[in-house]
Specification:
The chain is of the alpha+beta class. Helices cover 27% and strands 30% of the residues.
Length: 562
């Protein structure tokens, strides 16, 4: 036998063996994913559709569960899901396509593209809208504030009208990053103004059709009939209860519907772009901007750029009542996970993370949590830290020493024991949080830093409090109105207590009908659900309104006394 023939036979033998090993590894991987999915989803309940894509094709694809319980219709790869906030990436991509054509400048004032805007006090750019740094209020919270249920009919015109009606910014642009659905609604309107097309037509002609996303659509009109669409559910006492609604026809921040086949094609476009180009994709995958204070922004163009267990991750999630969605891209590994669920009670985040752990098991770097080593409490030192500290959002944390034990007391009087790591650093065992006490220049301990969820919050010690009499508290009662939204929030006094009364939407979504106000200090009160409420006074020291500093995606909402 010739030497060359021996080499050829040997190469073929090795290739066959390698293929069998690879096949075995793939089968093992698919079995693990199937097992993970089967443990979370049921054939008889609302479920989901999942795919894992590489640059070599589809690694895994599965659908499980019921898309319509009442009609007993099963989910398949043609079932439409409400993508919720995953839709923001299509809006951002549309803006980028128009930028590529020289029709949009991301650093231009949005008034260049949108007319009839209110006085927002500060210049807002297209980039601010893209990165959620504009300060524009989020319309989901604004709708709750005006008592507009998400089950009511709502158009894009309603959305834009509400944004123009509430002209107050949460903050000066580029000083904070606060997620805003309203900002992306404005972006959709910019697409329409610049392109001369409806937003739905632009996405269909410029993105959906070129990629072969045959059923993807923008649900922008009441007369548009969805076909093969999933119903959204939650599980209550083991039974599915319908919670989704299709009466919202606003767009830009959400309201794109697509099936698994569509989302596979969309995911493949990030690995090998047919629409757009590699330069655009690279920009999406790369953090590129900072706030005015130098803090880095992790949000680029409709995506968060993060690290997952040592691996670069570009992702966005989306949730509305009854639906949960994820698109996760691991760009350095040419891997995409797309997952869509019509059951909000499913641990969707656990499923997609579990799939990532399986597929990327050879690259994951598990960083063990820093061990918290408890030392004996220096009681005398801890007594120096006792007191109340106010965080920037008005939240107050109280620390006290009782029977040689150091305690954290929250505004609702919940108590948690603190354990010492040294004389100035403490941690909790009840949940993952820590605090550090620091000295000011005069040597007094009057500052505290609270550490939780990877973030740090500075707090300052609050001075001595002056208790208010019942008569003084009663004087805060009255009729208060949010003038931009034309909504009244009465504050009543009953049995020695103050209550702020909220619209029906608070009861529907939060179980709140009225909120008791608990006096903290001076003109500041706390509530057990909506944070701090601070009364304001005129030049004669007479109460003339109040402000809610922190309502999630709404900040510093002002009310006037009628």
């Amino acid at each position: 036998m010739k030497k060359s023939l021996v080499i050829i036979l040997l190469v073929n033998l090795i290739s066959t063996f390698t293929a069998r090993v690879a096949s075995g590894q793939t089968e093992n991987l698919l079995t693990k994913i199937d097992s993970l999915v089967a443990n979370q989803l049921s054939e008889d309940l609302p479920g989901g559709a999942i795919a894992v894509i590489s640059n070599n094709g589809i690694i895994y694809k599965n659908t499980l569960g019921v898309m319509n319980v009442e009609q007993n219709l099963k989910i398949d790869e043609n079932t439409l899901f409400d993508l919720a906030s995953v839709a923001k990436q299509f809006t951002a991509y549309a803006i980028m396509l128009l930028e590529q054509e020289g029709k949009i400048d991301l650093d231009e004032d949005i008034r260049t593209y949108l007319g009839d805007l209110p006085d927002f006090e500060h210049r807002i750019t297209v980039r601010h809208l893209l990165q959620h740094t504009s300060g524009i209020a989020s319309t989901d919270w604004l709708r709750i504030m005006i008592g507009s249920s998400f089950d009511e009919g709502w158009s894009h015109n309603d959305e834009i009208k509400l944004l123009k009606q509430y002209s107050q910014l949460n903050f000066k642009p580029n000083t904070q990053h606060v997620y805003s659905n309203g900002g992306y609604s404005f972006l959709a309107s910019i697409v329409e103004e610049v392109s001369g097309m409806s937003f739905a037509d632009f996405l269909n002609q410029r993105i959906f059709k070129p990629l072969g996303m045959e059923t993807a659509l923008v649900n922008a009109r009441p007369d548009l009939r969805l076909a093969n669409d999933a119903i959204g559910y939650e599980i209550v006492e083991g039974k599915p209860v319908k919670v989704s609604s299709t009466t919202d026809y606003s767009y830009g921040s959400g309201n794109v519907w697509a099936n698994l086949s569509d989302m596979i094609k969309w995911g493949q476009n990030f690995l090998s772009p047919k629409v757009g180009n590699a330069e655009m994709i690279n920009r999406i995958f790369s953090k590129y901007n900072t706030l005015d204070n130098g803090d880095s922004i992790s949000y680029t163009y409709g995506f968060f750029v993060r690290e997952y267990k040592g691996i670069k991750l570009v992702m966005h999630q989306g949730g509305v009542p009854g639906f949960r969605n994820y698109l996760m891209i691991f760009p350095n590994d040419n891997l995409v996970i797309t997952a869509h669920f019509n059951n909000e009670s499913i641990n969707a985040w656990g499923i997609v993370n579990g799939i990532a752990d399986i597929v990327l098991s050879n690259k994951i770097e598990e960083k063990p949590a820093k061990p918290r080593i408890e030392v004996a409490l220096n009681v005398e030192k801890a007594k120096q830290f006792a007191g109340t500290y106010e965080l920037a959002d008005g939240m107050e944390l109280t620390f006290k020493v009782e029977q040689d034990t150091f305690w954290l007391v929250l505004p609702d009087d919940d108590k948690f024991q603190l354990f010492a790591e040294d004389d100035y650093n403490f941690f909790l065992k009840a949940f993952n949080a820590q605090c550090t006490f620091t000295k000011s220049e005069n040597g007094e301990v009057d500052q505290m830093v609270w550490h939780q969820s990877g973030r740090s919050f500075n707090g300052s010690r609050v001075g001595d409090r002056v208790e208010l009499s019942i008569d003084e508290i009663e004087r805060f009662a009255g009729r208060y109105i949010q003038s931009d939204l034309n909504m009244e929030y009465p504050i009543t006094f009953n049995d020695g207590r103050l209550y702020v009364h909220t619209p029906s939407t608070f009861k529907k979504y939060f179980g709140i009908e009225k909120l008791e106000l608990t006096h903290v200090s001076s003109d500041k009160f706390t509530t057990n659900r909506l944070g701090t409420l601070v009364f304001t006074r005129d030049e004669n020291s007479k109460v003339n309104g109040f402000m809610m500093p922190e309502l999630g995606r709404l900040q510093n909402v002002r009310f006037e006394l009628l």
